Amino acid sequence: xxxxxxxxxxxxxxxxxxxxxxxxxxxxxxxxxxxxxxxxxxxxxxxxxxxxxxxxxxxxxxxxxxxxxxxxxxxxxxxxxxxxxxxxxxxxxxxxxxxxxxxxxxxxxxxxxxxxxxxxxxxxxxxxxxxxxxxxxxxxxxxxxxxxxxxxxxxxxxxxxxxxxxxxxxxxxxxxxxxxxxxxxxxxxxxxxxxxxxxxxxxxxxxxxxxxxxxxxxxxxxxxxxxxxxxxxxxxxxxxxxxxxx
Length: 246
Hints:
Layout: H1 2-58, H2 60-68, H3 71-89, H4 95-113, H5 116-119, H6 122-145, H7 154-174, H8 177-209, H9 213-242
């Protein structure tokens, strides 16, 4: 009987270890899919931003239309409209459709951000990108590994994002350097916090969708969108401090 008990206990420990390993491997695969989708989105944004700038730099009519005509407002605000519509409708999409819409949104965002090449030098943009990548990686790793519950930060950070959006819209008309500086400082802090918060949330999301491949596929795209926006906003606010203006 004692020998049987020992064998049974060993089998239970082995089975539990196998299940835990399976969950861990599934979580790693889920998170890797999110980071891969995010990286694809950033690559598409970068290519479209530089490509649009190059076309505008060699074609004055395109530059006039994109940056100096009323069309610029559509280019600026279209990504905001699309991302809200995408977030609201993603549960009705297949994972492959959601990925295509996400990449289309990333391309539209690249079109909107192409003007940064007019304002900042290529060296300043590249430097800020690498600073952002290093910061984002460290913050996301913290969110993934920390045992501290970051859920209490969620409502505060969300309200901060709303405040930044409203302040940025107002400053488009006021052109206040003081307000712009304050928004940039708060933006860096808020999106740094959101990077860690969203990463931890995405880990928790896996517990709900891990056994449903279609739901997990949609969650992977939605997670990629959240981290993509965290990265991009962190980059844009850091650019105010580390970018070299032309």
